[in-house]
Amino acid sequence: MLAAIGVDSVDELFAQVPEPLRLDRPLRLPEGMSEVEAYERLAELAARNADCEEQVCFLGAGMYDHYVPAIVDAITQRSEFLTPYTPYQPEISQGGLQAMFEFQTAMSELTALPVATAGLYEGPSSVASAAYLAIGATKGRRRFVVSRGVHPHSRETLATYAVGFGAEIEEVGLEDGLTDAAALARAVDGETAAVILQSPNFLGSIEDVEALGAAAKQHGALLVVAVDPMTLGVLRPPGECGADIALGEGQPLGNRLDFGGPSFGFFCGAEELIRKMPGRIAGETDDVDGRRGFVLALQTREQHIRREKATHNICTAQALNALAATIHLAWLGREGYRELGELLVRRTAYARERLAAVPGVELLHEAPVAREFAVRLDAPVATVLERCAERGIAAGYPLGREYPEHEDGLLVAITERRTRAQIDDLAEALGVAVAAEAVAV
Amino acid sequence: MADASYPEELLYHPDHDWAQVDGEQATFGITWYAQDSLGEVVFYDPPEVGAKVSKDSPYAEVESVKAVSDVIAPLSGEIVEVNEALADAPERINEDPYAGGWLVKVRLSEPSELESLLGAADYVALLG
Amino acid sequence: MNQQDEQVLTIFERSKRGRRAAVLPDAEVPEPPLEQLIPAKLLRDEPPRLPEVAEPEIVRHYNRLSRRNFDLDTGFYPLGSCTMKHNPRLNERVAALPGHARLHPAQQPKRAQGALELMWLLQESLAEICGLPHVSLQPSAGSHGELAGLLLTRAFHADRGEARTKVLAPDTSHGTNPASVTMAGYEIVKVATDERGGVEMDDLRAKVDDEVACLMLTNPNTLGLFDENIAEIAGLIHEAGGTLYYDGANLNAVMGHSRPGDMGFDIVHVNLHKSFSQPHGGGGPGAGPIAVSERIEPFLPRPQVVRRESGNGSGPSFDLDYERPKSIGRLRGFQGNFGVFVRSYAYILSLGADGLAEASETAVLNANYLKARLAEGRAGKHVPIAFDRHCMHEFVLSGKPMKKDLGIATLDLAKRLLDFGFHPPTVYFPLLVDEALMVEPTETETKESLDAFAEAIDQILAEAEADPDKAKSAPYTTPVRRLDEVKATRKPVVRQPPG
Predict the structure, then answer these.
(1) Which domain holds residue C250?
(2) C370 and C339 in one domain?
């Protein structure tokens, strides 16, 4: 090979790197190792994590310990889905493009909005992406009115991006677990690009999106709603509540927890926003012989063509994770998806009732919930969590850091994996832990 | 697709736009060369009536599948009419760039600018 | 059955009322009507129209669909700047371990020490490879890393009481660079490329001023050429008070041989789905961690993974540090694409210092060998190299002579390659080169694979010499032939119509 190139050594090929920039020592990293050794090292690291097989998990906050059916892995681990590049050569990418089209259809059905893109990174950055779209769609308005019920990670991410957008954010507080409607109406004006809500919100409450959204409509602002994709079998979808954009964290559909990623963000919108939407979009068409096929449509929105005027900078997204979601939804099917939603609501109602009956545990609010709810503890949350963990239960997400006004608050999440027995166990464990603190004091 | 043509009665801008002047008003569009380079037009987003255009500056965008092109104003003025038909049939820009594919009609603000535009022969010479 | 003759049905079209795959557990709890728990106005009337298909049908559907995809495990992907190297299956095995896969991101740090240590070790490894001490793993992809880098730049300048407005980038830069610049609120200014293929120094000097916040580069650049002026470029930008950003898309050329930190870069993003073997998945997931210099460190996203000495004899512990007063804040939910970190860390562990250096060496060798093969015969004549010097891990050819002499465009050559069982190189990028073909073989291709590709190119050109129409109507043997993209874009159909 060197002869063909016309050099005597590979070193000659690196001659274009100036001598002072050539690293004159090996990288200070361990030497390579055999597969078995690498496996053992990774397994040893894994063993030091209290995962959901070790601790019964009532943690939620946007990511949930759902059961991912076995066929999801069997399909997504296939070479043909795992290893190809982005489908820029559609003739040899019909598998991936059709999968995207099916995903888009599924998410459009869930949210009741006509246009879905092939996805973004995850939930919180999708909120920031919606804000970017709203600036363009409202011809340059740069104010956002955001409910405090929107996930803290989404609000923080939006604040980070807003520095680049030159945008202002006004936060509207919660009253009894729900967005303060009067305060929201006061906050929205003719400079507002979008009103951003979440339902169920971070405290688990189901918001009246249609009523809250009226203020946005009045002032020509976009209504952006973040939703939980596992609850759309039972809850009125954002498209039926006046939302212009519905988005959210897609992890509950087909994706593992993976300590927070990779998952995907879904992003759906009204027809008139299609040319402003971020991310790839698969479209249906025909080939020269009339065969049905799929291609990347409306590429002129994207960075590789539009460059500095692109609707978004995204390139690599989360295609495989979106495929996992599509398979999961196909597996649940029309009836199963609704049934699962109903199961979540009923088990959550049961859990809420059991916990509210525990001495020293009180509901944080009485608003209707779907699959997650907040309680207040008569004992330091951190200590209670520790005692529960020692019993093999991750009892919930402590609210105090992001909601200092609920320093004694705990967010409890339910999935179809949380059995009645486990819920009863949680109630008992909380009761014991809170009581132990009372004694200690 | 029309054959290459550059009507004699029009005036041309080096950035591949034409103007048909009628007293204080003019109609603008893109030339045969521009639509040929762009490929099949899939989308045209017209500016608003009342918007001001300045000579040599972009006033709209024309999109093909794989490219976006700025449309440059050959003369300055105020837009009085846009070609609404292009919303449903942007391909007219390819089929008939000088008539059915017209983009905007403008009330001119600076008639002296006409002097800087090229005649058909000079424009064709530019194309080389 | 010939795939071209397959009937194409979506999963929705395979629906039959009443079929289903899922069997769900019993509720085990009281089952009041939902209206008793949630007000009716908040409830959905009709369930979403998801498919109704039994499990065996779902499996067949997606298996058949998968066979309508070309993939890296099947064949060669010489896509420039994509670094399509082999995806080791060990990575999938370890990523699936429950300790990694079934770990909730909000688990208490003391109960996620394995995960946090893994992240810290990956950070340290990337810091060493990049030559910059501080790393954040948060960004989810390269363009996310770019946005982060620009927001870090903004925070850096704001901290000094400055508000600069412009960012410079070469005309050869990847589209994500200018797109990120606009999202970060800056104005992009393009810098020209000289005849050697590097940054045009006079043009750069003319454009660097105190309004310039940052210069974004990749080195080697998208032409596959190492810019020998990089030290001077870094000096220029730093003297003017700006930051120097490295797009890590081309890191595969220099691992263990040169480090962007040593070249003078302040902020580097690394594409784990490129140099670090994370599978592309048909368009993600990936990750775009960033490594930064000391002066940029205070602004890094929150939270940061940190290592703390215990001081009491027991080993160090790992934590998520939220106390970062100058941080730009969060870029996304939780900690980042941890599953990708597991895979990339397994890759780095497997290769080690020696293996990574060898990977880059082999990548550069393979690219130069393929370039030499394609400089011979028909390829040398019709698709000559754009910049005639040794390349690094990728090179760019121009199809302009081919278009003129044979009447076929780069697009046609690419489509004909599909019939030969190859994914084409990147086409029509960088914009600087007419009818560009950007070729990056990576280190995991054998010599035979490279020879086969060169032979295929030769055959296609020979064909075109005799009959240009052959390539113009290609491909012939793929599941579908050329698709009507105009129709797809003029009247977009982006979902299955209901019913």
Answers:
(1) 90-347
(2) no
Answer yes or no: do A306 and B68 touch at CB < 8 A: yes
* Ranges of residues in chain B whose predicted pLDDT is under 50: 1
Q: Which of C50, C280, C478 sits opposite A337 (nearest CB)?
A: C50
Using a CB–CB cutoff of 8 Å, tell me whether A186 touches chain B.
Answer: no
Q: Which domains does chain A have, with CATH numbers?
A: 56-68+334-440 (3.90.1150.10), 70-327 (3.40.640.10)
Fold of the CATH domain B11-127: OB fold (Dihydrolipoamide Acetyltransferase, E2P) (2.40.50)
User: Domain ranges in chain B?
Assistant: 11-127
pLDDT in tens, C51-92: 999 999 999 999 999 999 999 999 999 999 999 999 999 999
Q: Which chain A residue lies closest to B62 (C-alpha atoms)?
A: A300
- Assigned token pair, A204: 């688990």
pTM, to two decimals = 0.96
B40 touches chain C (CB under 8 A): yes
pLDDT in tens, C440-479: 999 999 999 999 999 999 999 999 999 999 999 999 999 9
User: What was the pLDDT predicted at C311?
Assistant: 76
pLDDT score, position A441: 58
**pLDDT score of B1:** 46
User: Residue C74: inside a domain, yes or no?
Assistant: no
How far, in Å, CA of A346 to CA of A337, rounded? 14
Task: Please state, in angstroms and rounded to a whole number, the distance separating the CA atoms of residues C319 and C325.
Answer: 17
Show residues of chain B in contact with C489, CB under 8 Å.
Answer: 42-43, 63, 65
* B43 has a chain A CB within 8 A of its CB: yes
CA distance A341 to A229: 10
Looking at residues C331-358, what average pLDDT do you find?
98
- Return the residue matching tokens 């990728």: C394
Q: For residues C370 and C294, state if they share a domain.
A: no
DSSP A354-416: HHHTSTTEEES--S-BSSEEEEEESS-HHHHHHHHHHTTEE--EE-TTT-GGGTTEEEEE--T
Chains touching C (3+ CB pairs < 8 Å): A, B
The span from the CA of A172 to the CA of A170, in Å, is 7
Residue C248 domain flag: yes
Which residues are CB-neighbours of C239 under 8 A, at least 6 positions away?
Answer: none
Residues in chain A with pLDDT < 70? 440-441
A64 in Cβ contact with A413 (< 8 Å) = yes
Q: Which pLDDT tens digit goes with each residue over B54-75?
A: 999 999 999 988 888 899 999 9
Q: Which of C70, C349, C356 sits opposite A33 (nearest CB)?
A: C349
Taking the Cβ of residue A303 and every Cβ of chain B, the question of whether any pair is shorter than 8 Å is answered with: no
Please name the chains neighbouring B, where neighbouring means 3+ C-beta pairs under 8 angstroms. Answer: A, C
Subunit contact B90:C490, Cβ cutoff 8 A: yes
DSSP classification of residue C447: H
Give the ipTM of the model, two decimals please: 0.97
User: What CA–CA distance (Å, rounded) separates A378 from A193?
Assistant: 42
Return the DSSP state at C75.
S
Question: Buried b / exposed e across A323-339, counting CB within 10 Å, b at 16+?
Answer: bbbbbbbbbbbbbbbbb
Q: Smallest CA–CA separation between A145 and chain C, in Å?
A: 19
In a domain, C76, yes or no: no
The 10s digit of each residue's pLDDT in C237-286 is 999 999 999 999 999 999 999 999 999 999 999 999 999 999 999 999 99
